[in-house]
Design goal:
CATH superfamily of the largest domain: ABC transporter type 1, transmembrane domain
Helix content: 55-70%
CATH architecture of the largest domain: Up-down Bundle
Largest sheet: 6 strands, mixed
Number of strands: 10
Length: about 600
């Protein structure tokens, strides 16, 4: 076995451990399912014995009343045993239905919860469609794994032990021969499936890439259309699908050989057992009924162990699917609460960036020894050219990334030592490009404070001047906004984001180009909303347009990840450095005017 194969085989055990742990939460359903499986297979072993007796009575005697009575007695027991099997099947399905549905819900919730806990960097480095499919496969793979074990592997083992025992009582040669063949057959299937598994894993990988490509293309449909790139995307998708086709064909070709080998083995053992039975019959050791018994047993065993091959393939697929998500669940979260982390307590809202350094994983340095002290309820604007590190400041404050060095404090509390949830609850963010859920306007605004009443949500929308466009929709606040809010204009989405921030009413407010998508009319409508929103809060406003922040308490001019200048608009214009003046001279306008 090659090292990659050993590695892939080793991943089976973590999946089994995760699934068995999830199933153990419902012990009674599990017990009922196992007991029912044993009852079904025991009935499958016993019933043919009464069928054997029934045939022997009819074939070896002259029809008399006693013979008829004996035949009917055997038939009654045969029927009763089959009814027991039928009841066992109903019980097994009842227990499995309840167990699998509950466990799958638990797995969905566990996978979704852990996935959301990953850092911002994780999500921008993975396709959304691929992550979605991994969560779905992880939960649904449990059904395949559990069904394979309870409906195939475990019953086949019980049935094989039973019939080998019964046949050994008739002839040790028949029993041991059947046992040896069963072991060889299952072992060969295992070997063939193991050699085939890398092909299945490769197919699963290519399948995920097809899904990821589709998701990426659907998300960027407007870009594809505007650049007239449909032919280009079709060609790239055709190439991706072709690689999936080649991987799929290799799997199917392997199946062709596996089915052929299994068929030859089945024909061989059936002929050998019947030939041996003829020799035993010639010596008077078995009856005609025993021929029927052997045939029923052999056909029953074929059905079960043949399905082992099919289920083993499906089981390997399920393990491959589950492993994709399990790898993510075993990957430590990039940003975690430190041991003993306490909730953030914001009394005044002072923010202190103390010699903060930050660089991305590609060693691209963004901030170097960045120092900035923001007083309680001070309104500070970060300005500068693109790439100066303005938006990075907001991301570090929210702990979407960890600093490479230095400290960020809020009211003297190191934000790396407080819980992430309490930190983010204390900060309201109005981003440059608000992304909305494919839910109603009411639900999207309520996201600022999920426990808010409808009246509070509507009032926040009124203050953000959302009513002006919501009134145009027949369903009003119940209007669905489309995926990522595509049914709304950029300005409308930003007004929804502002309404969220108003509803959240956090002591710290971050405005990341909060008016960049507003036209002149929309900008005028929400001037007073932003002024009310900022009142009594510590504010960090990030802007390219100086006119939007010229009346802030202090402007911080950033250049190459450091503070180049600091002061009011007038002070900076009068400063001997011409950096801010250069920015101002190429811009014009006014915003956030004081009363």
């Amino acid at each position: 076995m090659t090292p990659p194969e050993k590695k892939k085989l080793a991943r089976v055990w973590p999946v089994l451990h995760a699934y068995s742990k999830a199933a153990s939460a419902y012990p009674w359903s599990l017990v009922f399912a196992v007991v029912a499986a044993i009852v079904i297979e025991a009935a499958g072993v016993v019933a043919p014995l009464y069928l054997r007796q029934f045939i022997n009575v009819l074939s070896g005697n002259t029809p008399t009343r006693e013979v008829t009575r004996a035949a009917f007695v055997a038939l009654i027991f045969f029927t009763a045993t089959n009814l027991v099997s039928w009841l066992g099947q109903r019980l097994r399905l009842w227990a499995v239905n309840r167990l699998e549905s509950r466990v799958m819900v638990d797995l969905y919730r566990a996978a979704f919860g852990y996935l959301l806990g990953h850092a911002h960097e994780f999500f921008i480095s993975n396709f959304t469609g691929t992550l979605t499919r991994r969560v779905t496969r992880y939960a649904r793979s449990f059904e395949q794994v559990f069904d394979s074990i309870l409906f195939n592997f475990f019953p086949a083992f019980i049935f094989a032990i039973g019939i080998v025992g019964v046949l050994s009582l008739k002839s040790l040669t028949l029993g041991t021969g059947l046992l040896a063949w069963t072991i060889v057959f299952v072992y060969l299937q295992f070997r063939m499936m193991r050699r085939r598994q890398p092909l299945r894993a490769a197919r699963t990988e290519k399948d995920s890439k097809v899904t990821g490509f589709l998701s990426d293309a659907m998300t960027n449909h407007s870009t594809i259309t505007s650049f007239a790139a449909m032919r280009y995307e079709n060609a790239r998708f055709a190439e991706t699908v072709h690689r999936w086709y080649l991987a799929m064909r290799r799997v199917w070709d392997a199946d062709l050989w596996i089915y052929g080998i299994q068929g030859l083995l089945a024909v061989g053992i059936e002929s050998a057992l019947l030939a041996g039975a003829v020799l035993l019959w010639q010596r008077g050791l078995i009856t005609i009924g025993d021929f029927v018994l052997i045939q029923v047993y052999v056909l029953g065993l074929f059905n079960r162990i043949w399905n082992i091959g099919q289920n083993m393939r499906q089981l390997y697929d399920a393990f491959a699917d589950a492993t994709e998500m399990l790898d993510i669940m075993e990957l430590p979260h990039g940003i975690q609460n430190m041991p003993g982390a306490k909730p953030l307590s914001v009394r005044e809202g002072a923010i202190d960036f103390d010699r903060v350094r930050f660089e991305y994983h590609d060693s691209q340095e963004v901030l170097k020894d960045f120092n900035l002290a923001i007083a309680p309820r001070e309104k500070v604007a970060l300005v500068g050219s693109s790439g100066a590190g303005k938006s990075t400041i907001a991301k570090l404050l929210l702990r979407l990334y960890e600093v490479s060095g230095g400290l960020i404090r809020i009211d003297g509390q190191d934000i790396s030592r407080v819980t992430q949830e309490s930190l983010r609850r204390a900060i309201a963010l109005v981003p440059q490009e608000p992304l909305l859920f494919h839910r109603s306007l009411l639900d999207n605004i309520r996201y600022g404070r999920p426990e808010a009443t409808d009246e509070e949500v509507i009032e926040s929308a009124r203050q953000a001047h959302c009513q002006e466009f919501i009134a145009r929709y027949p369903d009003g606040f119940n209007t669905l906004v489309g995926e990522r809010g595509v049914k709304l204009s950029g300005g409308e989405r930003q007004r929804v984001a502002i309404a969220r921030a108003i509803l959240k009413d956090a002591p710290i407010l971050v405005l990341d180009e909060a008016t960049s998508s507003l036209d002149s009319e929309s900008e005028r409508l929400i001037q007073d909303a932003l002024l009310r929103l900022m009142k009594g809060k510590t504010v960090i406003a990030i802007a390219h347009r100086l006119s939007t922040v010229m009346h802030m308490d202090r402007l911080i001019v950033m250049e190459k990840g450091t503070v180049a200048l600091s002061g009011t608009h007038k002070e900076l214009l009068a400063h001997e450095s011409n950096l801010y003046k250069k920015f101002w001279e190429i811009q014009a306008g006014g915003f956030l005017r004081e009363d």
